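Take our chain:
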Amino acid sequence: MHDEIGQSGAAREEPAPAGDVWLALTTAVLSMDRAGSWVQRGDCGAVVVFGGTVRDHAKGRPGVSELEYEAYAGQVEPRLAEVAAHARKQWAGIGKVVIWHRTGTLGVGECSVVVAVSAGHRGEAFDAARYCIDTVKKTVPIWKRERWQGGEDWGLDAQVVAEVGE
């Protein structure tokens, strides 16, 4: 049984924070529904939720069966906080922000990352959510190992970790 963020009946449900930003690096199953519900606010007319899921292929690697995510845990949450802070500076109409990422072994179809943003208007919510996921991919030290029909190795899309704001 997995610990979960946001699944009813879970072994252990992560408690929501009191503020307007919820960040997590976890082995828990991620709930896009809970992220979307948590970011809603009465003064925000838009909610955008992005969920990245494990797909069954990668470039030159058909039949992907699972991904294993590893992270430099001591650096992840501070960098996630920087991403959320930069987004809030760029789009003043942002209400709440969720950025969650899983570690461990995930099968095809499982959610590995969730970004949810509420804002006064849809443009801000879409732009801020895209900024958050794109910046997380560039700046947060999380790597994936792919297992496919022909073998296993680190993902081909790995890149040098940049600083937030670069």
Notes: The radius of gyration is 16 Å. The longest strand covers residues 94-102. Helices lie at 32-39, 73-90, 122-139. The chain is about 25% helix and 35% strand.
